[in-house]
Amino acid sequence: MTYSLPIPILGFAAYSGTGKTTLLEALLPMLTKAGLRIGMLKHAHHNFDVDKEGKDSYRLRKAGASQMLISSRNRYALMTETPDAESEFEYLLSRFDTSKLDVILVEGCKNIAFPKIELHREVVCKPWLHPNDTNIIAIAADTKVMETDLPQMDINDLDSIAQFVVSYVESAQQPVSKNKDAACCDTLSPAFLSVQQGQEKILSLVNPLAETETCAIESAYGRVLADNISSPVNVPQYTNSAMDGYAIRGDDLERDSYKVVAEVMAGHAYSSPLQAGEAVKIMTGAPTPINGDTVIMREQATTQDDNVSFGNANIKAGQNVRQAGEDLAIGSDVFCTGQRLASPEMGMMASLGFGECSVFRKLKVAIFSTGDEVQAPGTPQQANSIYDSNRFTIMGLLEKLGCDILDFGILEDNEEQMIQALQDASEQADVVLTSGGVSVGDADYIKLALDKLGQIDFWRINMRPGRPLAFGQVNNKPFFGLPGNPVAVMVSFINFVEPALRKMQGEQGWQPLKVNAVAEENLRSRQGRTEFSRGVYELDAGGQLTVRTTGKQGSGILRSMSEANCLIEISPAVDTVKAGESVTIIPLQGRI
Ligand code: AMP
Ligand code: MG
Known about the structure:
Blueprint: E1 9-13, H1 20-33, E2 38-42, H2 56-62, E3 67-71, E4 76-80, H3 89-94, E5 103-107, E6 116-120, E7 136-141, E8 152-154, H4 158-173, E9 191-193, H5 195-205, E10 212-216, E11 229-230, E12 240-241, E13 245-248, E14 258-264, E15 278-282, E16 294-297, E17 302-304, E18 307-309, E19 321-322, E20 333-335, H6 343-351, E21 356-360, E22 364-370, E23 374-375, E24 386-387, H7 390-400, E25 404-411, H8 415-428, E26 431-435, H9 446-453, E27 454-461, E28 463-464, E29 468-474, E30 477-482, H10 486-504, E31 515-519, E32 523-524, E33 530-539, E34 545-549, H11 559-563, E35 566-570, E36 576-577, E37 582-587
Parallel strand pairs: 1-5, 1-6, 2-5, 6-7, 7-8, 9-27, 14-15, 22-25, 22-26, 23-24, 26-30, 28-33, 31-34
Antiparallel strand pairs: 3-4, 10-21, 11-20, 12-19, 13-15, 13-16, 14-18, 17-18, 27-29, 29-30, 31-37, 32-36, 33-34, 33-35, 35-37
Helix pairs in contact: 1-4, 5-10, 7-10, 8-9
């Protein structure tokens, strides 16, 4: 995660008991001596208070001041009550006067993504953080770690730690290009990105199709409108009755009985203006007669011979009548370009009299699977192989979005064949989608082929499942290299491919639905990455949306997607969601 701060930020991450504060207390004089002006942000437990009971500021806060700024000759302090939720990390950072600082050091906040030094002491008996937190840039410990490339220091060697911080601040102060092109794919490789950064980069690099075609309304389900539509007619065309009953004049409500002068069925009309004392028997949808602006429903009517009376029905002038143009008035805006057409839109287009409409042409998506172990279904299973599931989940996902699918099957791990297939696919399709072979350190040939063909970046997204993701252009067509694990494929598709395809299809303003639900169980995550667990949400007896996981969350367990009706999204800033806490869910209905 990057923060829009003009000065560097550096954290000290450790389990409690490691002695963070003691270390910082000893370190700060060395840093200030080296000329650094230091801001500190410390995360404390929720009941902390800097104020003292009985002090004026305390009394004023308790009396109702939600922000209390207290100032004296030597310092001031702003205390802000945050009863609803702890302030966002980024917001807290924005409280500093960075013009008077060289660096912000952070104690705590180990679940939030920003550069940190891991502090570790063996006696505390806690696991290492760096294997699961890509934000750790160095280690200060009382033991050596073998399997890491991170710089390591002795936790008791304060000089080295101070030197590290000073160099970190100096290198961060080097002017960096703020050029927007920095977001271009070819400057990013290999990179760690947050989910949002990945989404934004991809969306900024794909464009809507230009070609449109005419489509009959009956075939328009799921298509994206390529036109602004305004209403050529009034809907409804004429004022009509909303009930089976009797139409009378709205200025003639007080009579004991009315003479029934006609009966009007839907599709017909009574052409004479209704006179005082008259009623017309009318069916739902039939045009109301001139002056007959009020309808009383049949159940409230008593007839005798040619007369009708309404007893003590409480009649309001104008009731039970649908006005001409009440749904859509002539000339009013109905849909804009980029509207995806579903059932209501099909009906509305028809209600306006349109037999066809202009839509963006269908998006052609080429798909293939990779890997020598991957075998097509429908054939006897070979030793050491797995059936190809990814191509089929992807087909379903593409079907849901109304894409034309070009199925290139399974590609062998052979560079020549890959190059040929990618070339063919990119010539025939608007987008190329593969799965497998993009993990960093993977020996698959697809990477070699991609390197030769286009501009592809191999990203590591701070998410689970679905960390590896390749994205770029082959032959000027967007290319997505999804991970190989079946759940990771779906989660990556939902997060990165679907928004991009929707944009390419011309759809505008699409946002995934996200809502909050109460966790029924503790949900584990890891600091610094977004966790997408497969969940089942439901309304409990009290009307509260609750969510539980589908159980085992391995990224190969495709059944978890089948059992889920939502993804549970745990943000990088959160480590564990406790049972009873609120969590974000992404309902999957209509998307998978
Ligand atoms: P990879 O990223 O190629 O190393 O793949 C990661 C995991 O996903 C491996 O266990 C692969 O066997 C599996 N995998 C790759 N492609 C497919 C596929 N098309 N269908 C099912 N599993 C796959
Ligand atoms: Mg593979």
